[in-house]
Amino acid sequence: MFRIAIYSTVFFLVVFSCVHADVLFVDDFEDSPVGKSPQKWEHLEFGPGNKEITVEKDPTNAKNKVVKTTGIGLYIPKASGREDWKDYIWDFDWMWENDSFVGTIYRVEGGLKGAESHYHVSRRTGGKEIHIYTRKAGGWNRVAGGSMDNKSKV
Questions:
Q1: Which SS3 state, helix, strand or coil, does residue 11 take?
Q2: Which of 46, 75, 135, 146 has the most crowded Cβ, counting Cβ within 10 A?
């Protein structure tokens, strides 16, 4: 039994020591003024949704700042090399203020010129469904969706 524990430990050390990922962009919005668009993000124009997002005080901790969106606002990080980002993870906390079709665009294909082509995750009304869509040439295509119990203001 002890030998299995040793082998398992060595195996996990070898496997996890080989994993590496670069951090491409980080923003906690602390540098941006409340009520304004986040300074480290660029607002892109695209057809059906052109909402602006604003930096606000965190409703759960007034010492922090968060970004508030009220619809589809297409923003991409102002970061060098962003046009070459191909395989990445978008990690964020998301709190819904009310029961609405709030979404975020998390990957734009073609950068500044391809704002119309992107991936979009959306919380549906009723607080039970999350959907992932793509948008290409003006049309929406649902890629995936599922149940995720979620409440407003949590």
A1: helix
A2: 135
Q: How many CB atoms lie within 10 A of CB 131?
A: 17
Count how many Cα atoms sit within 13 Å of the Cα of residue 137 in the half-sphere of its side chain: 0
Length of the chain: 154
Q: What is the pTM of this model?
A: 0.66
What the block records as the tokens of 33 is 């003024």
**Which tens digits make up the pLDDT trace of 15-41?**
555 666 778 888 889 999 999 999 998
Instruction: Please name the residue ranges forming H helices in the chain.
Output: 2-17
Cα torsion 7, 10, 12, 14 to 10°: value is -140
In this structure, are residues 119 and 106 in contact, taking their beta carbons and an 8 Å threshold?
Answer: yes
Q: What angle do CA 38, 25, 86 make, to 5 degrees?
A: 115
